């Protein structure tokens, strides 16, 4: 008789001492077996569609000569700088504004609730479509130029023809698309802070800024850090925004690592170089992931 | 309590009123700014979609189309526009990828989530860490080896290759959300069931899933949006024969003469399903987000 049946019927009939229910060790072993069964589908997905491609990527990028080629390419260096700027601003400006705006959306007014519904729209609009809209907006005589000439009677520059203008356009489009998501996360977290803490702080004479510094921020600090780390990983891997808004232009000077890797692999038919280009971000990615794992398990401030 | 003289009381009250007026004006201004910020690119989409001109898009710096027309939308619905002859099939492909990504992520994620937080496994934490390891490499960084491996698996130009990629990258976040949410549910519920002799599969179906509905709704929306947002994997793995709506848009940068009003109309139609899903599940989303973010 298998342990499974034993527990299933709840009658340990053939166990040596019939009065004792199945021991903890037995249960443990049984649950372990079940646990393996529950985890098996994900383990298969992880192995076949993540681990294997990842090892394959490491193997493709293992040749040292590839990195010599990368460093010799001036486009690689400018891409690394663009990536740092894109991630630095794209993550931090977005997260900080999201944190502040979540406080605004906490206010109980009917029109603020209605505004929230409009504000989350960018998150629901598919990335490629939203980016195409930004791309067209910045064409000559597009909506932005139209506004500038209509309101101030000036002609806009050729926006995407300048490296930093193109990088800035990518960042703005990225923030536009993803800020609502993080705002909603912070808003949800703020809703769990009991209202009466603020009320008593207000009676003690604390103003809005002091409430934010001494109550809101300490409570949200761990969440803010976790979200920032997660967002750093996701922003670093963002392909669509740069590929569509600026198209990497002017002539590749606003590329980030994801689009440069794509360019090497599919436009110049050097897949090894493309993989090496993106894998060169590993020294940054690994510490962020480790920090994220650590932070996820800790809970520092609770109310 | 101190007794305040009438003048100080009045001045305090007026300063309070002044502050309130300032706060109200400030939020009104901020509200208008946010409204413009959120709607500006969407307005631009409609501006282009309602343009009556066919063929090459001529930007004339217009703030509004002189003669708005629904021709763009009509051309999409009747599949008359170039590149969109197969629009409903492309839309069907997108729906297929989105729905299956959603269902599989919810299923696989909830199985792992249950095992990690409800079964007494000693190494459960290791499992979540392993899942998080997926984020060490962003999805876009793996496209080249992934493409080659799909070739080896015989899955090139197959919608399932895209679904597999989306599920792989959606599941770790799903596991995190589910784990955080499950932490807030007392384990006694399971112990009671164990005493009654329920097997883990019963506990999963009868206790875990019903209790976790709000968190599962969040996971579902997250997975659908991940698949909906994807451009790279669909563009690389699928051929023109199996296009999705997301792909058609990128194709067109090569072609200046495309019917951009129809393309933008297609983009606007493409936006509707996630909005409908979020609207349908909004109550669950609000409930579980609050609980989850309290757990971090």
Quick structural gist:
Chain A has helices at residues 3-9, 24-60, 64-72, 74-105, 110-119, 121-124, 127-137, 143-151, 163-191, 195-203, 208-236, 240-246, 257-267, 271-279, 282-297. With 303 residues, chain A is mostly helical.
Model description:
- The complex is a heterodimer of chains A (303) and B (296).
- The model of chain A is unreliable at 1-20 (pLDDT under 50).
- Chain A is mainly α and 303 residues long.
- In chain A, α13 packs antiparallel against α14 (271-279).
- Chain A is flat, with a radius of gyration of 26 Å.
- Chain A has two domains: 1-60, no CATH class; 64-297, MetI-like fold.
- Chain A has helices at 3-9, 24-60, 64-72, 74-105, 110-119, 121-124, 127-137, 143-151, 163-191, 195-203, 208-236, 240-246, 257-267, 271-279, 282-297.
- Chain B is mostly helical.
- Chain B folds into two domains: 6-76, no CATH class; 85-295, MetI-like (MetI-like fold, Orthogonal Bundle), CATH 1.10.3720.
- In chain B, 72% of the residues lie in helices and 0% in strands.
- Chain B is built from 13 helices and no strands.
- Chain B has helices spanning 6-49, 71-77, 87-118, 124-132, 143-153, 159-182, 188-195, 200-211, 213-229, 232-237, 245-251, 260-280, 282-295.
- In chain B, α1 (6-49) packs across α12 (260-280) and α6 (159-182) packs antiparallel against α9.
- The radius of gyration of chain B is 26 Å and the shape is flat.
- The relative contact order of chain B is 0.14.
- The model of chain B has no long low-confidence stretch (mean pLDDT 83).
- At the A-B interface, α1, α2, α5, α6 and α7 of A face α1, α3, α4, α5 and α6 of B.
């Amino acid at each position: 008789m298998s342990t499974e049946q034993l527990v299933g019927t709840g009658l340990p009939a053939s166990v040596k001492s019939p009065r004792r229910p199945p021991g903890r060790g037995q249960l443990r072993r049984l649950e372990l077996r079940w646990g393996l069964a529950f985890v098996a589908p994900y383990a298969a997905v992880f192995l076949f569609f993540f681990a294997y491609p990842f090892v394959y990527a490491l193997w493709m990028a293992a040749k040292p000569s590839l990195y010599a080629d990368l460093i010799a390419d001036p486009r690689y260096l400018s891409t690394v700088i663009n990536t740092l700027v894109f991630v630095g601003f794209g993550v931090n400006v977005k997260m900080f504004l999201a944190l502040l705006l979540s406080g605004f959306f906490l206010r109980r007014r009917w029109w603020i609730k209605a505004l929230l519904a409009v504000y989350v729209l960018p998150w629901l609009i598919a990335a490629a479509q939203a980016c195409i809209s930004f791309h067209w907006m910045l064409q000559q005589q597009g909506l932005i130029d139209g506004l500038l000439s209509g309101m101030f009677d000036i002609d806009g520059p050729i926006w995407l023809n300048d490296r930093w203008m193109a990088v800035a356009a990518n960042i703005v489009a990225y923030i536009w698309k993803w800020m609502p998501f993080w705002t909603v996360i912070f808003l949800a977290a703020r809703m769990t802070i009991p209202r009466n803490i603020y009320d008593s702080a207000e009676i003690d004479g604390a103003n809005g800024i002091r409430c934010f510094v001494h109550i809101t921020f300490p409570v949200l600090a761990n969440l803010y850090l976790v979200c920032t780390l997660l967002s750093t990983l996701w922003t670093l891997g963002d392909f669509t925004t740069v590929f569509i808004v600026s198209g990497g232009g002017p002539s590749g000077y606003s590329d980030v690592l994801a689009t440069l890797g794509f360019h090497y692999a599919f436009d110049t038919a050097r897949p090894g170089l493309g993989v090496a280009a993106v894998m060169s971000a590993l020294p940054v990615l690994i510490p962020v992931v480790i920090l994220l794992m650590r932070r996820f398990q800790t809970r520092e401030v609770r109310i | 309590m101190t007794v305040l003289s009438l003048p100080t009381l009045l001045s305090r009250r007026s300063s309070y009123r002044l502050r309130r007026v300032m706060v109200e004006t400030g939020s009104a201004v901020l509200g208008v700014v946010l409204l413009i910020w959120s709607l500006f690119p969407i307005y631009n989409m409609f501006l282009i979609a309602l343009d009556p001109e066919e063929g090459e898009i001529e930007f004339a710096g217009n703030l509004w189309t002189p003669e708005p027309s629904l021709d763009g939308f009509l051309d999409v619905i009747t599949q008359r526009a170039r590149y969109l002859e197969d629009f409903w099939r492309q839309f069907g492909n997108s729906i297929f990828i989105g729905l299956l990504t959603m269902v599989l992520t919810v299923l696989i994620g909830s199985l792992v989530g249950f095992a990690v937080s409800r079964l007494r496994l000693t190494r459960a934490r290791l499992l979540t860490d392993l899942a998080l390891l997926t984020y060490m490499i962003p999805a876009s960084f793996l496209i080249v080896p992934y493409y080659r491996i799909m070739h080896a698996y015989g899955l090139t130009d197959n919608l399932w290759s895209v679904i597999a990629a989306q599920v792989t990258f959606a599941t770790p976040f799903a596991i995190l959300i589910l784990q955080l949410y499950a932490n807030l549910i007392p384990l006694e519920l399971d112990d009671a069931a164990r005493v009654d002799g329920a097997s883990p599969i019963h506990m999963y179906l009868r206790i875990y899933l019903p209790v976790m509905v709000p968190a599962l709704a969040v996971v579902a929306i997250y997975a659908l949006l991940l698949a909906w947002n994807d451009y790279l994997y669909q563009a690389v793995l699928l051929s023109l024969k199996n296009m999705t709506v997301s792909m058609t848009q990128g194709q067109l940068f090569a072609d200046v003469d495309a019917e951009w009003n129809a393309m933008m109309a297609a983009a606007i139609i493409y936006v509707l399903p996630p909005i409908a899903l979020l609207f349908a599940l909004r109550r669950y989303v609000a409930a579980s987000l609050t609980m989850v973010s309290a757990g971090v």
